[in-house]
Design brief:
The chain has 1 helix and 9 strands, in the order E-E-H-E-E-E-E-E-E-E. With 143 residues, the chain is mainly beta. It has one domain.
Length: 143
């Protein structure tokens, strides 16, 4: 069966979201397999040269998401999946629902002390990553 005309096919591959704190903007790039291999195995906080993407600044990896939607968490070592008990931070933000029957988003309040066991990915970038978050650094800044 052929797809309907005018329908765009989903682009498979990893995305890089590159934030520039000086300008206050973020750009999205679709990485080729060769560009992705530069990031595979790097840990959150690693500083890379931006010449792979044609950028003259250095790039610092700040996080990401794997292909199944699990976030990369900096305090879990390696590229493995792990169930950890958290009270907040990357991957879990505890909220208290209002007592009323209407569950409005604006009525949800943050809660202190609530903990939950969640599945997260380690701090190393795996091969099946869906998105990598990064920030540009100044060119004169030491690595």
């Amino acid at each position: 069966m052929s797809s309907a005309p005018g329908r765009s096919e989903r682009v498979a591959g990893c995305r890089l979201v590159l934030s520039d704190p000086e300008k206050g903007v973020a750009q999205g790039f679709v990485l080729t397999p060769e560009q992705l291999q530069v990031f595979v195995g790097k840990k959150i906080g690693s500083v890379l040269d931006g010449s792979v993407l044609g950028i003259k600044k250095k790039i610092k990896v700040t996080g990401g998401t794997d292909a199944h939607g699990f976030p990369l968490r900096p305090d879990v070592q390696g590229a493995r999946k792990a169930e950890i008990l958290v009270s907040g931070g990357v991957g879990y933000h505890p909220k208290r629902k209002p007592p009323s029957k209407r569950k409005k988003k604006r009525n949800k309040r943050p809660v202190r002390g609530k903990r939950k066991r969640i599945l997260v990915r380690g701090n190393a970038v795996p091969e099946n990553v869906a998105q990598i978050n990064a920030v540009t650094l100044e060119a004169s800044q030491p690595s």
